[in-house]
Amino acid sequence: MATTSADPSPSTSNDDLEIRRTVVADGAAMWNLARECGLDLNSSYAYLIFAADFAATCRIALLGGEPVGYVLGYQPPERPDHLFVWQVAVSSRARGRGLARRMLEDLLHAHSEGTTLEATVEESNDASRALFAAVARAHGGTLSWTEGVSAEDFPDDHPSEPRLEITGMDLH
Ligand SMILES: CC(C)(COP(=O)(O)OP(=O)(O)OC[C@H]1O[C@@H](n2cnc3c(N)ncnc32)[C@H](O)[C@@H]1OP(=O)(O)O)[C@@H](O)C(=O)NCCC(=O)NCCS
Protein backbone atom coordinates (compact mmCIF):
# COMPACT_ATOMS: atom_id res chain seq x y z
CA MET A 1 0.00 0.00 0.00
CA ALA A 2 1.39 3.40 -0.91
CA THR A 3 1.66 5.93 1.90
CA THR A 4 1.55 9.68 1.60
CA SER A 5 4.78 11.54 2.21
CA ALA A 6 3.81 12.70 5.70
CA ASP A 7 2.02 9.60 6.98
CA PRO A 8 4.03 7.53 9.49
CA SER A 9 1.18 5.06 10.18
CA PRO A 10 2.08 1.36 9.79
CA SER A 11 2.04 0.09 6.24
CA THR A 12 2.51 -3.49 7.42
CA SER A 13 0.99 -4.52 10.71
CA ASN A 14 0.14 -8.00 11.90
CA ASP A 15 0.62 -10.00 15.07
CA ASP A 16 3.35 -8.19 16.90
CA LEU A 17 5.12 -6.87 13.81
CA GLU A 18 4.84 -3.32 12.52
CA ILE A 19 6.71 -1.88 9.56
CA ARG A 20 6.37 1.84 8.91
CA ARG A 21 8.04 4.97 7.60
CA THR A 22 10.49 6.56 9.96
CA VAL A 23 10.12 9.67 12.09
CA VAL A 24 12.99 11.68 13.59
CA ALA A 25 12.75 9.86 16.93
CA ASP A 26 13.53 6.54 15.18
CA GLY A 27 17.03 7.78 14.30
CA ALA A 28 18.40 6.81 17.71
CA ALA A 29 17.14 3.23 17.39
CA MET A 30 18.54 3.01 13.86
CA TRP A 31 21.93 4.15 15.11
CA ASN A 32 21.81 1.56 17.93
CA LEU A 33 20.82 -1.21 15.52
CA ALA A 34 23.59 -0.25 13.08
CA ARG A 35 26.08 -0.51 15.93
CA GLU A 36 24.62 -3.79 17.21
CA CYS A 37 24.64 -5.32 13.71
CA GLY A 38 28.23 -4.31 12.99
CA LEU A 39 27.45 -2.02 10.06
CA ASP A 40 29.62 0.93 9.04
CA LEU A 41 28.39 3.33 11.70
CA ASN A 42 27.39 6.80 10.54
CA SER A 43 27.00 9.62 13.05
CA SER A 44 23.85 9.57 15.20
CA TYR A 45 22.97 12.89 13.56
CA ALA A 46 22.99 11.24 10.13
CA TYR A 47 20.40 8.66 11.24
CA LEU A 48 18.17 11.37 12.74
CA ILE A 49 18.31 13.43 9.56
CA PHE A 50 17.65 10.41 7.37
CA ALA A 51 14.76 9.27 9.58
CA ALA A 52 13.19 12.72 9.28
CA ASP A 53 14.03 13.97 5.79
CA PHE A 54 14.31 10.68 3.87
CA ALA A 55 11.35 9.00 5.59
CA ALA A 56 9.76 8.07 2.26
CA THR A 57 12.74 5.82 1.52
CA CYS A 58 13.42 4.55 5.05
CA ARG A 59 11.59 1.93 7.09
CA ILE A 60 11.67 0.74 10.66
CA ALA A 61 10.38 -2.64 11.90
CA LEU A 62 9.05 -3.03 15.43
CA LEU A 63 8.36 -6.32 17.13
CA GLY A 64 6.14 -5.95 20.18
CA GLY A 65 6.84 -2.22 19.97
CA GLU A 66 10.64 -2.71 20.06
CA PRO A 67 12.70 -1.56 17.07
CA VAL A 68 14.35 -4.65 15.57
CA GLY A 69 15.25 -3.55 12.06
CA TYR A 70 15.54 -0.67 9.63
CA VAL A 71 16.21 0.20 6.03
CA LEU A 72 18.07 3.41 5.20
CA GLY A 73 17.56 4.43 1.60
CA TYR A 74 17.30 7.31 -0.82
CA GLN A 75 16.41 8.08 -4.41
CA PRO A 76 19.58 9.16 -6.24
CA PRO A 77 18.76 12.62 -7.65
CA GLU A 78 20.17 11.62 -11.07
CA ARG A 79 18.15 8.38 -11.09
CA PRO A 80 14.74 9.23 -9.61
CA ASP A 81 13.29 5.88 -10.73
CA HIS A 82 15.88 4.06 -8.63
CA LEU A 83 15.83 3.29 -4.94
CA PHE A 84 19.28 3.01 -3.37
CA VAL A 85 19.39 0.90 -0.20
CA TRP A 86 22.27 2.26 1.83
CA GLN A 87 21.84 0.04 4.87
CA VAL A 88 19.51 -2.75 5.93
CA ALA A 89 19.79 -4.31 9.36
CA VAL A 90 17.81 -6.73 11.48
CA SER A 91 18.72 -7.46 15.08
CA SER A 92 20.09 -10.98 15.58
CA ARG A 93 17.07 -11.73 17.78
CA ALA A 94 14.68 -11.19 14.86
CA ARG A 95 16.60 -12.64 11.91
CA GLY A 96 15.49 -15.48 9.67
CA ARG A 97 11.78 -14.65 9.69
CA GLY A 98 11.62 -12.55 6.55
CA LEU A 99 11.81 -9.14 8.21
CA ALA A 100 14.48 -7.62 5.97
CA ARG A 101 12.67 -8.81 2.87
CA ARG A 102 9.36 -7.46 4.14
CA MET A 103 10.86 -4.03 4.85
CA LEU A 104 12.29 -3.87 1.31
CA GLU A 105 8.99 -5.00 -0.18
CA ASP A 106 7.10 -2.43 1.89
CA LEU A 107 9.38 0.25 0.50
CA LEU A 108 9.02 -0.97 -3.07
CA HIS A 109 5.23 -1.07 -2.78
CA ALA A 110 5.27 2.62 -1.84
CA HIS A 111 7.15 3.46 -5.04
CA SER A 112 6.21 3.29 -8.70
CA GLU A 113 6.00 -0.02 -10.46
CA GLY A 114 9.25 -0.49 -12.36
CA THR A 115 11.45 1.05 -9.67
CA THR A 116 14.99 -0.30 -9.85
CA LEU A 117 16.50 -1.38 -6.54
CA GLU A 118 20.19 -0.59 -6.02
CA ALA A 119 22.67 -1.40 -3.29
CA THR A 120 26.33 -2.09 -2.81
CA VAL A 121 27.30 -5.25 -0.95
CA GLU A 122 30.72 -6.52 0.10
CA GLU A 123 31.67 -9.83 -1.43
CA SER A 124 31.86 -11.46 2.00
CA ASN A 125 28.32 -10.51 3.04
CA ASP A 126 26.45 -13.72 2.23
CA ALA A 127 23.32 -12.78 4.20
CA SER A 128 22.91 -9.49 2.39
CA ARG A 129 23.54 -11.05 -1.02
CA ALA A 130 21.01 -13.79 -0.22
CA LEU A 131 18.49 -11.14 0.82
CA PHE A 132 18.69 -9.19 -2.46
CA ALA A 133 18.70 -12.40 -4.50
CA ALA A 134 15.55 -13.52 -2.67
CA VAL A 135 13.79 -10.20 -3.38
CA ALA A 136 14.71 -10.42 -7.08
CA ARG A 137 13.61 -14.04 -7.32
CA ALA A 138 10.30 -13.46 -5.52
CA HIS A 139 9.30 -10.70 -7.96
CA GLY A 140 10.73 -12.02 -11.22
CA GLY A 141 13.41 -9.31 -11.29
CA THR A 142 16.81 -9.42 -12.95
CA LEU A 143 19.77 -8.93 -10.64
CA SER A 144 23.01 -7.68 -12.18
CA TRP A 145 26.34 -6.51 -10.78
CA THR A 146 28.75 -3.72 -11.70
CA GLU A 147 32.03 -2.68 -10.14
CA GLY A 148 30.52 -0.21 -7.66
CA VAL A 149 32.90 1.41 -5.21
CA SER A 150 36.41 0.06 -5.45
CA ALA A 151 38.64 -0.52 -2.44
CA GLU A 152 41.19 2.00 -3.79
CA ASP A 153 38.67 4.82 -3.45
CA PHE A 154 38.22 4.30 0.29
CA PRO A 155 40.54 6.28 2.58
CA ASP A 156 40.73 3.35 5.03
CA ASP A 157 41.09 -0.40 4.51
CA HIS A 158 37.43 -0.85 3.56
CA PRO A 159 36.87 -3.69 1.06
CA SER A 160 35.32 -2.95 -2.32
CA GLU A 161 31.55 -2.61 -2.54
CA PRO A 162 30.24 -4.11 -5.81
CA ARG A 163 26.95 -2.53 -6.88
CA LEU A 164 23.83 -4.54 -7.63
CA GLU A 165 20.74 -3.53 -9.54
CA ILE A 166 17.42 -5.34 -9.61
CA THR A 167 15.24 -4.39 -12.56
CA GLY A 168 11.91 -5.56 -13.89
CA MET A 169 10.27 -6.55 -10.62
CA ASP A 170 6.56 -7.29 -10.59
CA LEU A 171 5.20 -6.29 -7.20
CA HIS A 172 1.57 -7.32 -7.68
C1 LIG B 1 21.21 -9.16 6.07
C2 LIG B 1 20.09 -9.11 7.13
C3 LIG B 1 19.48 -7.72 7.12
C4 LIG B 1 19.01 -10.16 6.76
O1 LIG B 1 17.92 -10.00 7.68
P1 LIG B 1 16.79 -11.13 7.88
O2 LIG B 1 15.56 -10.45 8.37
O3 LIG B 1 17.31 -12.25 8.69
O4 LIG B 1 16.57 -11.65 6.37
P2 LIG B 1 15.25 -12.36 5.82
O5 LIG B 1 14.74 -13.29 6.89
O6 LIG B 1 14.33 -11.35 5.27
O7 LIG B 1 15.87 -13.24 4.64
C5 LIG B 1 15.72 -12.89 3.27
C6 LIG B 1 16.38 -13.97 2.43
O8 LIG B 1 17.79 -14.00 2.66
C7 LIG B 1 18.20 -15.29 3.11
N1 LIG B 1 19.17 -15.11 4.18
C8 LIG B 1 19.10 -14.27 5.24
N2 LIG B 1 20.18 -14.41 6.03
C9 LIG B 1 20.95 -15.36 5.46
C10 LIG B 1 22.19 -15.95 5.79
N3 LIG B 1 22.86 -15.59 6.92
N4 LIG B 1 22.71 -16.90 4.97
C11 LIG B 1 22.06 -17.28 3.85
N5 LIG B 1 20.85 -16.77 3.47
C12 LIG B 1 20.31 -15.81 4.28
C13 LIG B 1 16.94 -15.94 3.65
O9 LIG B 1 17.01 -17.36 3.57
C14 LIG B 1 15.87 -15.36 2.74
O10 LIG B 1 15.83 -16.06 1.50
P3 LIG B 1 14.48 -16.85 1.07
O11 LIG B 1 13.39 -15.79 1.03
O12 LIG B 1 14.84 -17.40 -0.28
O13 LIG B 1 14.28 -17.88 2.13
C15 LIG B 1 20.64 -9.46 8.55
O14 LIG B 1 21.33 -10.70 8.48
C16 LIG B 1 21.57 -8.39 9.11
O15 LIG B 1 21.13 -7.42 9.72
N6 LIG B 1 22.89 -8.59 8.96
C17 LIG B 1 23.89 -7.65 9.53
C18 LIG B 1 23.85 -6.30 8.82
C19 LIG B 1 24.16 -6.41 7.34
O16 LIG B 1 25.10 -7.07 6.92
N7 LIG B 1 23.34 -5.71 6.52
C20 LIG B 1 23.50 -5.70 5.07
C21 LIG B 1 24.50 -4.74 4.58
S1 LIG B 1 23.95 -3.06 4.67
Automatic annotation (TrEMBL):
PROSITE patterns: GNAT (PS51186). InterPro entries: Acyl_CoA_acyltransferase, Ectoine_EctA, GNAT_dom. Pathway: Amine and polyamine biosynthesis; ectoine biosynthesis; L-ectoine from L-aspartate 4-semialdehyde: step 2/3. Gene3D superfamilies: 3.40.630.30. It holds the Pfam family Acetyltransf_1. GO terms for biological process: ectoine biosynthetic process. GO terms for molecular function: diaminobutyrate acetyltransferase activity. Keywords: Acyltransferase, Transferase. Residues 17-161 form the N-acetyltransferase domain. Its EC number is 2.3.1.178. Residues 148-172 are annotated as: Disordered. Belongs to the acetyltransferase family. EctA subfamily. This is L-2,4-diaminobutyric acid acetyltransferase. It comes from Ruania alkalisoli. The gene is ectA.
